[in-house]
Design goal:
With 128 residues, the protein is mostly helical. The chain has helices spanning 3-10, 14-21, 24-33, 39-48, 52-68, 72-84, 95-127. Helices cover 77% and strands 0% of the residues. The chain is elongated and about 45 Å long. The model has no long low-confidence stretch (mean pLDDT 91).
Length: 128
């Protein structure tokens, strides 16, 4: 499976990732790390604990990683949370609103995570 095919399967914007990272090898490297870099899991964990400063940090990191990788839907949801919890910003989401947004992130994240894991399995099988 090519990277472009992977992006098509996971609903990502390959061309956006290529504009940002400029080299397919970097896209490949970083998209494969998405399921192990903890960026999404960090936001989920912080939101479950309603740790506001950690939610900002995790959402801000996730926004950047996902934007760079062309995972627009995830980046936009993370951006919304980051802006609501930016230090000094008085606007906050209710616990229920945070939970709903994080549940949506987890739901959307399932598609790229599953696709990336499948690519990893394919590579392992090709080695044997």
């Amino acid at each position: 499976m090519t990277l472009r095919e992977l992006y098509s399967e996971i609903g990502g914007d390959y061309d956006q990732a290529l504009r940002v990272l400029r080299v397919e090898k970097l896209i490949d490297k970083h998209i494969r790390k998405l399921t192990s870099n903890g960026v999404v899991e960090g936001l989920v964990d912080a939101a479950k604990r309603m740790a506001h400063s950690e939610m900002f940090d995790a959402a801000h990191a996730m926004k950047g990683v996902c934007a760079n990788l062309g995972l627009t839907a995830l980046s936009e949801l993370a951006s919304e949370i980051a802006e609501k919890y930016r230090p000094g910003n008085p606007r906050k989401l209710s616990d229920e609103e945070v939970s709903a947004r994080v549940a949506r992130i987890e739901q959307i994240y399932t598609t790229p995570a599953d696709g990336i894991k499948e690519v990893r399995r394919e590579l392992i099988l090709l080695r044997f």
